[in-house]
Amino acid sequence: GRTPVTVIGLGMMGSALADAFLNAGHRTTVWNRSADKADALVAKGAVRAASAAEAVSASPLIVVCVLDYEAVHEILGPAGGRLAGRTLVNLTNGKPEQARKEAKWANEQGANYLDGGIMAVPQMIAGPEAFLLYSGSPEAFETYRRELDVLGAGKYLGEDAGLAALYDLALLTTAYGLIGGFFHAVALVGTEKVEAAAFTALVIPWLQAMIASLPSQAQALDANNHTTDVSSLNINKVGFVNLIEASQEQGVSTELVAPIQALVNQAVADGYGADGLTRLVELLKKPQLL
Ligand code: NDP
Fold first, then answer.
1. CATH architecture of the domain with range 213-284
2. Structural domain boundaries of the chain?
3. Which CATH fold would you assign to the domain 5-166?
4. What are the pocket residues of ligand 1 if the criterion is a CB atom closer than 6 Å to any ligand atom?
5. Which of 52, 113, 254, 268 is paired with 136 by a 20 to 30 Å CA distance?
6. pLDDT (tens digit, 9 = 90+) per residue, 52-98?
């Protein structure tokens, strides 16, 4: 039969995770601090645990997905002894250091620990585009990769439990950067009453072309070779003045784009004006830049 699974935390994401296990035919035990969030899942066949400790005891595989690591501690601290011999998969968003501490704690309780990052919104869970990052116990990943693949494609990053959080936050950054640029652009054209929907039809092919350039940028970064035949920092510096001034003249805040301008200007001031944009990564590899 299928492995019984426990899901602790039934917010938007935890509910989607529990639902996916249920749909895949797993006996799914659920617990949430506010018990009513389990109702819909219980109506679909999930088992309601009366306490977090009971939830832990119900399955060899325990998935926890709550607000933050503090909540994880509040929930699992009292149930710690029950984790012995089980596998804890923590899909709560956090920092690498938090994940490493959590792994140590779980191991002290006799549990195998996997930390995870969910690269999906709840509606994508169990769908073709969802993927999840894991790091920590290789044994835990090997043992339960089939079960975890129910949620989305699992990618194991290595034994250091902090890696999933590191990659997760890094990937989040790429999305925030993209969305930040999109928002600035929509605000800018919106000053002339251009509707976001119409403008977005231009954004998509443009960004697709930009995304297609990432592998060659990655090559340049790995080779630490920032020479360019695409566009120099000098020319980007000039373009940025236009972007900033046009935004100001149109009455749009420059908060989202000004930091990138500052970085470009710094690189030019440092003598890298002939280099391509990838040079900026070298500047970023310092704790305090400007
Ligand atoms: P929700 O706000 O919907 O749910 C938060 C959950 O945390 C609830 O179950 C809540 O319980 C619980 N919780 C908060 N504080 C405590 C506490 N002190 N003790 C016990 N339980 C607590 O958030 P999401 O489900 O959206 O997010 C959960 C995790 O999933 C986060 O780490 C998030 O970053 C991650 N994630 C979310 C994504 C998304 O698109 N939603 C995407 C990728 C990752 P209660 O119901 O009792 O308040």
1. Orthogonal Bundle (1.10)
2. 5-166, 213-284
3. Rossmann fold (3.40.50)
4. 9-14, 32-34, 37, 65-67, 71, 74-75, 92-93, 118, 121-122
5. 52
6. 999 999 999 999 999 999 999 999 999 989 999 999 999 999 999 99
